[in-house]
Amino acid sequence: MAPAGTPPGSPIQSPSPAAQWRTLATHSDTLIGVLGELRRFLGGEKATPLWDGLPAHRSRAMRTWLNTQRSWLVVERLPAYAPELNPTEGLWSGLKAVELANLTVPTLAEVIAQAHQGIQRLRETPQLADSFLRHAGLSIS
């Protein structure tokens, strides 16, 4: 899909390596900020996020920052492709089966709106989140 504002028929161009690096750095910086907020929220308790292969999870900036956070943060990495171990896959499966099934809309905004509608539907059924965790062999204790 062409980026918003791209004239019809225009070739889709890949971002330059510099642009890709800036995007990765931004995502890493954003994630570091979110983890900082998590630390404040937890008030000194330890946390163990489960990470997939997202480039921001593997960036040099993230590795450097994680090395300074070992007193409270232990990252566990999922195997390269292990949907059965990732509870988020249950969410995606639920969305793809209902709200996003055979969806053909002209704008990304409409796709996002449908996804938000599906997420709200899943949030209204709390036992679904528990089932996603159980399916991945996890629980909240």
At a glance:
The protein is mostly helical. The protein is 52% helix and 3% strand.
SSE arrangement:
Elements: H1 17-42, E1 50-51, H2 55-58, H3 60-67, E2 76-77, H4 88-97, H5 108-123, H6 126-135
Helix pairs in contact: 4-6
Description:
With 141 residues, the chain is mostly helical. The chain has two domains: 20-77; 81-141, no CATH class. The chain contains six helices and two strands, in the order H-E-H-H-E-H-H-H. A two-stranded parallel sheet has the order 1-2. The longest helix has 26 residues, at 17-42. The radius of gyration is 18 Å and the shape is globular. The N and C termini lie far apart (42 Å).
What's the Cα radius of gyration? 18 Å
Tell me the number of structural domains: 2
Low-confidence stretches: none
Count, helices = 6
Shape: globular
Mean pLDDT across all residues, rounded?
81
Distance between the termini: 42 Å
Order of helices and strands: HEHHEHHH
Biggest sheet character:
2 strands, parallel
Sequence of strands across the biggest β-sheet = 1-2
Percent range for β-strand residues: under 5%
Helix content: 40-55%
The structural class is mainly alpha
Report the strand count.
Answer: 2
